[in-house]
Amino acid sequence: RAVLRTLAATPAAMPLIGFPHVARAAEFELKYGNNLPLSHPLNIRAQEAAERVARESKGRVEIKIFPNNQLGGDTDMLSQVRNGGITFFTPSALVIATLVPVAAINAVGFAFSDYDQVWKAMDGKLGAHVREAIAKVNLFAFEKMWDNGFRQMTTSGRPIEQAKDMAGLKIRVPVSPLSISMFKALDAAPASLQFSEVYTALQTRVVDAQENPLPIIQVAKLFEVQKSCAISNHIWDGFWFIANGRAWRGLPADLQKIVADAINDAGVKQRADIKALNETVQADLQSKGLSFNKTDPDSFRAKLRSAGFYKEWQERFGNEAWSLLEDAVGKLA
Ligand code: X2X
């Protein structure tokens, strides 16, 4: 009644001031966690996708992004997406492989030699094979992988040029059985640490080396605690954008389409961002004091072969997945 009196007393000429806009809570509030700094293309494109989903769903779906390990490390977020604590997570293939072993197949040492091979395989049969395996543990993997990049090795001491330089090297690797296996086969001394711990571990010399794509080295400022970088391209690594299976199935089909289209389109744009970044990132890192050297990939492949690395992982992944990989990259074992 009071409101009506106010309205009645309001001169028609005065624009009616809208009632304070109360933002309706979204019908679906979805949490997305990742392990990368805000400035990485993964977060920039994820933010765009979240805005597109809110717009196209007319506010029915809100994706809240928690970047840079705000929700905990990879291991924590992997268990959260499994139990539904969060809806989305973007683990590296190396990391989700702790749950879905075959997911590490794209990370077999020195398998991929360029991005044409990578996307033909991961957008094709090999990627489909891995997505099926991810579905079996009640997670949903979106069709398009996001790009982490070709991994390079950095050290605080002498540069790495060939396989023999790896002997005894205390190198940090992700929480990944394949990474441990590969660097042990190279006679290094690998230590698995979550990405959130890497900078400090290098700074305090708990480890003397690490390996990551150059954009990661840049955004995580690892050049501040490392001296040299060997361009080894020893692993191509990608992020699977995954959803909790139950939460994903709980979205109506029209909203699933809006979310999937936005996330897949964002993933393809993020790939282009990394490609563009790769043109400039080495010069930027050099300007920040990181020295670079080439390596002899054949010496590393020969060492992995003689250590039985390829044979071991062919058995562990199974012949079907291994054949899909070799169809894409040629004979490895
Ligand atoms: O932990 C790493 O090295 C990173 C950031 O590349 C992954 O997410 C695997």
Automatic annotation (TrEMBL):
InterPro entries: DctP_fam, TAT_signal, TRAP_DctP, TRAP_DctP_sf. Its main location: other. The keyword Transport applies. It is found in: Cell envelope. Keywords: Signal, Transport. PANTHER family: PTHR33376, SIALIC ACID-BINDING PERIPLASMIC PROTEIN SIAP (PTHR33376:SF4). Belongs to the bacterial solute-binding protein 7 family. This is TRAP transporter substrate-binding protein. It comes from Bosea massiliensis.
